[in-house]
Amino acid sequence: MHWQDNFFSKRITIAFCCLIASVSGFSQRYLADMDSSFFIQDTVRPVIKRFENLRITGYIQPQFQTAQSDGTPSFAGGNFSPFSSSRFMLRRARVKIDYVLPSKTRYPKALFSFQIDATERGVVVRDIFLKLFETKKNLFSATAGLFARPFGYEVNLSSSFRETPERGRMSQILMPTERDIGVMVSFEPQSKQHKLSHIKFDMGFFNGQGLSGTTDFDDHKDFISRLFVKPYIFKKLDITGGLSFLRGGWKNGTKYVYTSGSAANGDKIFVVDSAEANLGKSSPRHYYGADIQLKLHHGWGETEWRAEYWFGTQPGTSASTSNPGTLPTNNGIPVPTYVRHYNGAFLLFLQNIVNQKHQIMVKYDWYDPNIRVQKTDIGKTGTNLTIADIKFATWGVGYTYHLNSQTKLTLYYDFVKNESTLLPGYLTDAKDNIFTCRLQFRF
Which stretches of the chain drop beneath a pLDDT of 70? Predict the structure, then answer.
């Protein structure tokens, strides 16, 4: 039996080596992208046919952070502990497995994708979905499972490719975890010769709570769509852009619904509607977004400008505008709904210096959760305005050094600015700036 065991061990070793060899340095730039190298034959894969359509990719992001004060609330990886202003952490450590079922042509028939994130905070599933392709004209596909919401540019840009350490505050509040459970239909011609090959259009229905909840807590679904124009090249300039739309909401847990209004003395306040019909009715969650990206190629590498703007209506509570994973309650009792009108943006400048190994970046983003009030209204007696109504803006500056094609070191500083209000704790700018030093390796 010894020779059989030895023979079997050799077969396993060969299979494992071939599998690793077939895993290139590719990682998906966008969360819903698919590796086109699935359909490129080489001299290694025929050795073990069962692995030829399997891909394993991943990345790890160990980092060190320091904040201005102990217990700093942060959107740069979560709040700091009450007695700490510095920390080491594994921000992300992810492994993704993709399996494609090819058709008789070079185009795909089906794709299964599974991704986990394993850090000191636990192990969670980030993606698990099935994507089926129409193979007659190779124009359409349908996706079902847990996957990225088709809204906005920043939300869909993979964390392994994103230049800044984190997405902006507005992305994290309105689109927590970026993913949701649902079904989506996409128009995306697979052939580069198709006259609409530069167009991708997604639309789908989603639960709405994302990964912040284990199940949908009401029967209202979010409709989300995005029209994206892939790069158009004009000499040395690439231009891309998109339009996004979300229409959804969640059920009120009480009959009390607060909306923006004015008091008799002219103060901006929340006005309550306590009609019985409000109980169980959906409060509006409507988002509108537009984005554009410009990239200039030159001797040093690239210069890039990105701009993205969102506005709309967001339901929440008196203290938060974040999308909930469960029906908002206080000690198990449902709380009133607050409907706010918001806007926000992400502006990013990227510049290679000397060569492509060195890159500097400047980012500005803001999130104004209640555009119908002024900073001097917040904290006034009788207005019922809270921290959830404060506008925050963040300037970020950073530098990245690419050690090689798969490894990079990023130094980044967030200057976080809040409105000066009449609310205790926010009379002036809070001390919540963050410095991040991150090493990333991806495969």
Answer: 1-27, 32, 34-51
DSSP string, 296-357: EEETTEEEEEEEEEEEEEEEE-SS--SPPSS--EETTEE--EEEEEEEEEEEEEEEEESEEE
pLDDT of res. 317 = 96
Q: What's the confidence (pLDDT) of residue 12?
A: 43
Q: What are phi and psi of 222, to 5 degrees?
A: -90, 130
For the chain, domain boundaries: 2-442
Tens digits of residue pLDDT in 314-337: 999 999 999 998 999 999 999 999
Residues 6 or more apart whose Cβ sits within 8 Å of residue 148:
30, 31, 32, 127, 155, 156, 178, 179
Predicted pLDDT of residue 39: 47
Q: What CATH class is the domain 2-442? A: mainly beta
- Sign of the Cα torsion 158, 163, 167, 168 reads negative
The pLDDT score that the predictor gives to residue 8 is: 41
pLDDT at position 22, please?
A: 43
How many Å separate Cα 68 from the centre of its chain? 26
- Residue 97 near residue 83, CB atoms below 8 Å: no
Q: Give DSSP secondary structure letters for 151-203.
A: --STTTB-TTT-SSSS--HHHHHHSTTSEEEEEEEEE--S-TTSTTTTEEEEE
* Cβ-contact 318, 338 below 8 angstroms: yes
